[in-house]
Amino acid sequence: MSHSSITIIRADWRLYEKTLKSVRVEVFVDEQGIPAHIENDRMDFDAFHFLVRDGQHAIGCGRLHKNGKVSRMAILEEYRRENIGSQLLEFIHDYAKENSILELNLTAQTTAKHFYQRAGYEIDGELFKVAGVEHIPMRLSLSDNNPNEFRPALRYPQPYGELALHLANKANRYLRIYSQQLDHDVFDIAAFADAVSSLSRRSRHSDIKILINDSSTIIKRGHRLLDLSRRLSSFIKIQKISSHPEVTADTFMVKDLDGVIYSPAQPDRLGFYEPASRASSQKFIDKFDLLWSKSQPDPELRQLRL
After folding, report:
1. Which residues pair with residue 175 across a beta bridge?
2. Considering only the top CATH level, what class is 151-303?
3. What's the whole-model pTM score?
4. Could you state, in order of their start, the residue ranges of all structural domains in the chain?
5. 165 vs 116: CA distance, rounded Å
6. Among 160, 168, 172, 173, which residue's Cα sits nearest to residue 273?
7. 6-141 sits in which CATH class?
8. 209, 211, 145, 198: which is closest to 172 by C-alpha?
9. What is the pLDDT of residues 173-197, one digit of tens each?
10. Are the C-beta atoms of 196 and 210 separated by less than 8 Å?
11. Complete edge-to-edge strand list for the sheet that includes strand 6-11
């Protein structure tokens, strides 16, 4: 299905209440079985509203509160899988930034968790249920971490970790990670593990390679990516390289063939982030592939019982 007349507008609740409610009732009440009194939470008058239309037909909506909470994201069923939800979320993000709302939060239905992770949101709490439907708290900082722009002078571990998560969520097939000890602050978080797990299941051609220098820390403390590599060994491989002229204490990750994030070993130097550069990425791919060819599986990792 192709729709060439999709528009998104900021919708005044006083003028568009009936239209916005019609979308929400169809999606949340009729389709998902959410009780009407829960859907109608009486928080609409103080929120910013957004309406998606195909021509003059209302097909989606969203809501943003002044405290940064995003809610009531809904797209009619026949319009899903067409990237319209992503366009709506991007529109809301732009509006938030224009109004100096830089810290966003939401409670996502677990079925929509990966949709929000691809937009840069991180899990920020434990699962809970609303009307029998599982939800998970998530958050996003819009301060200065635009995931679609080149970032020089990048600090580690943050915002390096947030941007690395964005790359992992955007990967379609390949992910190459080089880290001395697979730092827990960046790579051993639930959202990052979820992104890697999703990539491994996305295609039978998915290929995730992780190269480390020292396995003692992840063996001692455990690691989410190590757990995944044991369960999904056909797609996720961890190998170790102890010595080679090209071995450094830098940390980098490459997404597919065109996205790279890098942090140098020297504490007085800063890294960079290039989400769409084949030239920069190729340099790191070449280095990674060379080191990978000289590496080997670590028997201690294979013997670990998970």
Report:
1. 208, 255
2. alpha beta
3. 0.57
4. 6-141, 151-303
5. 12
6. 160
7. alpha beta
8. 198
9. 999 999 999 999 899 988 899 999 9
10. no
11. 6-11, 48-54, 57-64, 70-75
